[in-house]
Specification:
Layout: H1 13-44, H2 49-81, H3 84-101, H4 110-141, H5 146-177, H6 181-206, H7 222-231, H8 233-253, H9 256-261, H10 270-283, H11 285-295, H12 297-314, E1 325-328, E2 332-335, H13 336-373, H14 379-407, H15 422-432, H16 434-443
Helix pairs in contact: 1-2, 1-3, 1-4, 1-5, 1-6, 2-4, 2-14, 3-4, 3-6, 4-13, 4-14, 5-6, 5-10, 5-11, 5-13, 8-13, 8-14, 8-16, 10-13, 11-12, 12-13, 12-16, 13-14, 14-15, 15-16
């Protein structure tokens, strides 16, 4: 496939499709370890919650360095070979590492298990960095038209939703469907690892001959690229916002499995919740694309974030709806509490898909702003810094959550879920409601001067 970015010209459908499909595997790699790796470590390996958070944190700290390095390397290689070699190598390494994370449960001690999982996750995260950074840089290189880039990212968002459905909605039930225990976890890892590999490798092969006409040849040091990023004020503001907003998401992701196990008390409801969230997110894409074109990306991003925050706060009320039942189409009679969970899924899917789509679209605007004001573009380095902050947030979130859960008495085990204290269950709800909602509101403070920062 060959395509050269040009102002005002639509990007071919095949290009959009090949670009979008890679995000499905990328989302599985991001979401499944964030949601299930802490559960796997706490309930199957006997690792305390605080240590499980540390296991996730340490590899993520490494990618703060690794992502910008991958961006710099891909910028150097791009004029000669494109970004596809990085995409393919990253797809293979990340998918293998993902499968290995859940492949084994018999360790001599929880500390040994923690050390092994930490090492495997570090290696897998390095592979994912080789894919995710050049992949994000491509989004800014496929078109010079801001609205066309948003349309491209709608395809990415469609596969994002598919990845969420697989990585969160299907992954945990898949463990039970395959027999539970070590066999179930290993089977889930192999199946999702294969899907991850196929989707990301498809993007790599689809862009094997692609060259971005806006990227100039010639080496530029990582330090020089960092200076370019520092001079790009819109990029700095957006990246700060994204870190805090992603931290909000990460806090919730780290306990979503525990929320359905304990406060809600029905883990089998999780797939229906994810389906509801995914369907509403998918159907709302035309809405966000049209409204952002009419009213602007920033105002609609704020609307989406505030809506998400309000729904997130409402999770703290789980358990207050009583024992009444209601009839739900296709699902029959169910408790009102569980019906409200599905309603939250529908609503939060709309707002979540909105701010995810628009945040990445605004990122492509800041990268193009840098091209207009710098002699040497640094697309890969900017993408690397942006993804590094996201991954750092997904490390800090579980670490904070692990400390809070341990402090409030959450108990680990080696034979599945066990009864927890009311204080531990309250901590789970806090990490899924008030804590992420507060971070989301805080993130908007970074955008007060975002529009003026472009100097237009």
């Amino acid at each position: 496939m060959q395509h050269s970015p040009a102002t005002g010209q639509p990007v071919p459908f095949a290009t959009k499709l090949f670009y979008g499909v890679g995000q499905m595997g990328g989302q599985v790699f991001r979401d499944t370890p964030a949601v299930l790796l802490p559960v796997f470590m706490i309930t199957m390996l006997g690792i305390p919650a605080w240590l499980a958070g540390l296991v996730v944190l340490l590899p993520k700290l490494w990618v703060i360095v690794c992502d910008p390095l991958m961006g710099n390397l891909s910028d150097r290689v791009e004029p000669r070979r494109g970004r596809a070699p990085f995409l393919l190598a990253g797809a293979l390494a990340a998918s293998l590492g993902f499968a290995l994370l859940f492949a084994y449960t018999e360790y001599s001690s929880p500390n040994v298990a923690a050390a092994v999982i930490c090492l495997v996750f570090l290696l897998a995260s390095t592979g994912f960095s080789a894919f995710s950074v050049p992949y994000l840089a491509l989004a800014a290189e496929l078109s010079e038209d801001a609205n066309e880039r948003t349309r491209i990212l709608v395809y990415r968002m469609v596969f994002t939703i598919a990845g969420v459905l697989l990585g969160v909605g299907v992954a945990q039930p898949l463990v039970f469907w395959m027999g539970g225990g070590e066999t179930g976890w290993r089977g889930m890892g192999l199946i999702l690892g294969a899907i991850l590999c196929v989707s990301m490798a498809a993007t790599a092969l689809g862009f094997w001959r692609f060259r971005a006409s806006t990227v100039t040849a010639g080496p530029i040091s990582l330090l020089a690229q960092m200076r370019i990023a520092a001079r790009n004020r819109p990029f700095r503001l957006l990246t700060g916002m994204q870190f805090v907003l992603t931290l909000a998401q990460a806090c919730g992701y780290s306990v979503v499995g525990l929320v359905f196990l304990y406060p809600i008390g029905n883990i089998t409801l999780l797939p229906a919740f994810i389906i509801a969230m995914s369907v509403s997110g998918l159907l709302s894409q035309p809405l966000w694309m049209k409204t952002s074109a009419r009213y602007g990306k920033l105002p609609m991003f704020v609307v989406a974030t505030l809506g998400w925050t309000l729904v997130t706060f409402s999770w703290y009320l789980v358990g207050s709806a009583g024992t009444d039942t209601v009839t739900v189409p296709l699902m029959g009679a169910m408790p009102v509490e569980e019906m409200l969970v599905l309603v939250r899924g529908l609503v939060i899917g709309v707002f979540n898909s909105g701010f995810v789509l628009l945040a990445i679209s605004m990122l492509t605007d800041t990268i193009n702003h840098g091209r207009e004001n710098e002699a040497t573009p640094a697309d890969g380095a900017l993408a690397g810094i942006f993804t590094a902050t996201e991954k750092l947030a997904f490390a800090v979130g579980p670490a904070l959550g692990g400390v809070l859960l341990s402090a409030m008495g959450l108990q680990s085990s080696t034979h599945g879920a066990i009864v927890q204290s009311p204080e531990a269950i309250r901590a789970i709800l806090l990490l899924y409601s008030l804590v992420p909602g507060g971070f989301a509101l805080l993130s908007l403070l970074f955008l007060r001067n975002y529009r003026r920062s472009f100097g237009r």
